[in-house]
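Two proteins follow. First one:
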Amino acid sequence: MADPTRDTLIEFLDPQNAQGALLALEPEEDAPTGVFRVYASSPEYTVRTSRRPARKTAAQAVLRVRELLVFKNERMQRLSYPLGGQLRHRWLGSSGPAVIFPGRGGARVWLESPTVGVLEVQYVTCFDRWQVEAPCPVAIVATLGDAQDSLLLDPGLPLSGIWDEIISGDWSHEDWADKDQTTDLTVRVVNYCSGSGVSGADVWLDGAHRRTNSEGEATFEAVRPGSHSVRAAKPGYMATDEDTLDNERFTI
């Protein structure tokens, strides 16, 4: 079994070792409206479209994917796309349990034991490229066994839209705040599984101590911009520096 404390490269050689049908549809980035991708764990899927027929323009194109799998005291998570044959992984923060990966075409990732942590995975997936003339909105439905996924292509809406304008440019902290400016900072401690606030938790920010209120919040006054350390703990809960999450430092 792979050593979970090291980056691991795994080659999958058995194309029949799929674990359940997996489908994903998405528009092709930087392409005219009407071009979309189909990710499928088997080539036996079908595509139906409204108004106009679709045609396949590329088969089994390769895409490298990086994503973070968040485990909330659980053993299983799914990759966003079917595994195409090559994968690397590492835990963010301290080491987690051993990881069991699917074969080619699968998506389920299993742990030997339930864990709170974040697993970074980098892998190869494959997709087919389809195209449909879209002078008006077109609905697309792909079916693979009992799995089904759908997509609406609307020529009136840009694929990227305003988001590219918001995140474009070379922004830095100095663009937003003066280095000498201070601010009051509220830290909220939550139960990682339920998302509810944890009252009575001890919080340390760069050594300064506060205790959370009934909403799970603790406020620190006159915090300067820059990098800071934070830690939270309460009896009955795992302290923030005892899990695999890399959440002990932040920047404002």
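Second one, unrelated to the first:
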Amino acid sequence: MSIDIETARRVAKLARIRVEEERLPALAQELSGILTFMEQLNEVDVTGIEPMVSVTPMRLKRRADVVTDGNIQAQVLANAPDAREGFFAVPKVVE
């Protein structure tokens, strides 16, 4: 698939990046190269291959999913400009 200069300009606008006019042809060529590489990857037969998370087999440590307050309320509120009754106090914004 080939990307033209107008498409490269639109991609840059959507990505919110500023690309000078003279750089647009090079950007279009780079994007075309990326899409060509992706097309090559699509040709690889991966049937029966499990997705990998890591190159080394690892088991994640399991722990009980228990809701706690972390037992660090005082540390969390230490830098608060205003704390009352164990909570952050903020000014009223809706009347």
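SUMMARY FIELD: The mean pLDDT is 89. The first strand starts at residue 83 and ends at 84.
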